[in-house]
């Protein structure tokens, strides 16, 4: 029996309606930008396995460091104990994060990094004897699948069964260059009528909303308003972090820095699950007290796992290397050229790009999980490209090490797919 067949017996896949999608493709090996399946087919991983393995799969620089670490210290409790990989990682991260970030708190995945961010913001006010119980978030945001993260997520198709149990959230539209005053008025009304604790947002690019992009200027206006009301700002950089927007973090395109930043996905270069929530000194100080209950009583068993920290450190070293920075510039220019080539295609409604994130909307009606979407996905896989269209949006977010030839193959396959529609 193949893995694909054995899989069906016991496995329950994430974000999957198994009655409609019973089949999974079994991947047996990954190297650089290439995935190998059990039938001998290869696929270019044009979405970097959900934006994680940005330096290529099984990158030997990273795997060697982790293998070495594995011989010395594997796992240890991070309450009352500490270790070199965590210390080094905190130093390396604070070096590249926006200037106001001072403290690093560990968890296990993107959702928990947001959960931690929300809890930090709520307790920040609580510790200062202010009751604030409402959050603000963008329409169509996505922040993960745990309850706090779901509450701030606006993509309701995932939330239906759970909505009755959510934290109270008020939604605002993303800035589009014309609605800044409208958003500001909405914010004023919301903050007059509610005790707002925090604003949680994906800066510049909303990944799960099909790579929806907004401008830094509009976001800066929102952040400035939040600061004036002591509304804690929580930037969810789980998707945008580590170079994808052309800077190390999307927040670095802004004038106003968020109080809290959530990181995961590319943090560990695609090797191990881990997340970080960083914050400013001011947030941290609100938890310092002779009263033990004012501390932050949140912790995961695998917090700051030394192997994951080692992978993250190696990833940050690569991110800062001349080689990767050149690659990022090369991909940005390559996508721009492809955009010019495809934007007037009759099947293309719109193109957009931020850094190495490229997206095109098809001028075709399509449901997020409809048949046409499935047909497109199959076309890409049959042609050796791993791309996952989000409704009628096709996006590319490839590892930084993708070659020009591989990029051209991705572009050509997208162009060929348009002909089939
Ligand atoms: C993927 C993602 C999350 C959730 O991360 P998980 O590791 O899947 O829990 C949260 N926020 C954003 C912006 C994401 O892209």
Protein architecture, described:
Belongs to the class-III pyridoxal-phosphate-dependent aminotransferase family. BioA subfamily. Catalyzes the transfer of the alpha-amino group from S-adenosyl-L-methionine (SAM) to 7-keto-8-aminopelargonic acid (KAPA) to form 7,8-diaminopelargonic acid (DAPA). It is the only aminotransferase known to utilize SAM as an amino donor. Substrate binds at residues 50, 265, 299, 388. Keywords: Aminotransferase, Biotin biosynthesis, Cytoplasm, Pyridoxal phosphate, S-adenosyl-L-methionine, Transferase. It comes from Winogradskyella ouciana. With 421 residues, this protein is of the alpha/beta class. It folds into 2 domains: 46-59 and 321-420, Aspartate Aminotransferase, domain 1; 73-320, Aspartate Aminotransferase, domain 2, CATH 3.40.640.10. It is 38% helix and 17% strand. The chain has helices at 3-10, 48-51, 60-72, 84-96, 110-127, 147-152, 180-193, 216-228, 281-285, 306-319, 322-342, 371-382, 404-420, and strands at 27-31, 34-37, 42-45, 101-107, 134-138, 169-172, 196-201, 205-206, 212-213, 232-236, 260-263, 275-280, 348-354, 357-362, 385-386, 393-396. The strands form 4 sheets. Strands 4-12-11-10-7-5-6 form a 7-stranded mixed sheet, sandwiched between helices. Strands 1-2-3-15 form a 4-stranded mixed sheet. Strands 13-14-16 form a 3-stranded antiparallel sheet, covered by helices on one side. A hairpin with a 4-residue loop joins strand 2 and strand 3 (42-45). It starts with a helix and ends with a helix. Bound molecules: pyridoxal-5'-phosphate. Pyridoxal-5'-phosphate (PLP) binds at residues 109-111, 114, 142-144, 202, 207, 236, 238-239, 264-265.
């Amino acid at each position: 029996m193949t893995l694909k067949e054995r899989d069906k017996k016991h496995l329950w896949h994430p974000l999957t309606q198994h009655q409609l999608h019973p089949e999974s493709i079994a991947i047996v090996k990954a190297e650089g930008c290439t995935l190998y399946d059990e039938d001998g087919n290869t696929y270019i991983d044009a979405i970097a396995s959900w934006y994680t393995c940005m330096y290529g799969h099984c990158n030997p620089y990273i795997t060697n460091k982790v293998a070495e670490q594995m011989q010395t210290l594997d796992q240890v409790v991070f309450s009352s104990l500490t270790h070199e990989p965590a210390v080094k990682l905190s130093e390396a991260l604070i070096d590249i994060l926006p200037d106001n970030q001072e403290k690093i708190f560990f968890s296990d995945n993107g959702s928990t990094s947001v959960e931690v961010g929300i809890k930090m913001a709520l307790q920040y006010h609580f510790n200062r004897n202010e009751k604030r119980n409402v959050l603000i978030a963008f329409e169509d945001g996505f922040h993960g699948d745990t309850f706090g993260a779901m509450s701030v997520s606006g993509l309701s198709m995932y939330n239906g069964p759970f909505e009755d149990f959510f934290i109270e959230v008020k939604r605002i539209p993303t800035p589009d260059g014309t609605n800044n005053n409208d958003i500001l008025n909405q914010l004023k009304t919301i903050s007059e009528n509610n005790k707002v604790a925090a604003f949680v947002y994906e800066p510049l690019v909303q990944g799960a909303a099909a790579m929806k992009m907004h401008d830094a200027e509009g976001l800066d206006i929102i952040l400035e308003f939040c600061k004036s009301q002591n509304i804690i700002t929580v930037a969810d950089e789980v998707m945008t972090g580590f170079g994808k927007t052309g800077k190390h973090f999307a927040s670095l395109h802004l004038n106003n820095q968020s109080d809290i930043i959530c990181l995961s996905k590319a943090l560990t270069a695609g090797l191990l699950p881990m997340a970080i929530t960083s914050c400013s000194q001011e947030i941290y100080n609100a938890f310092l007290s002779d009263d033990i209950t004012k501390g932050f009583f949140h912790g995961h068993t695998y917090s700051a796992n030394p192997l994951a920290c080692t992978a993250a450190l190696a990833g940050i070293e690569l991110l800062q290397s001349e080689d990767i920075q050149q690659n990022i510039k090369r991909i940005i220019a390559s996508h721009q050229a492809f955009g010019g080539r495809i934007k007037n295609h009759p099947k293309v409604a719109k193109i957009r790009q931020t850094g190495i994130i490229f997206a095109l909307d098809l001028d075709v009606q399509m449901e997020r999980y409809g048949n046409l979407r499935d047909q497109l996905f199959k076309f890409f896989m049959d042609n050796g490209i791993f791309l996952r269209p989000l409704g009628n949006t096709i996006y590319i977010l490839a590892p930084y090490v993708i070659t020009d030839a591989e990029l051209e193959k991705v572009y050509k396959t997208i162009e060929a797919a348009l002909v089939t529609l």
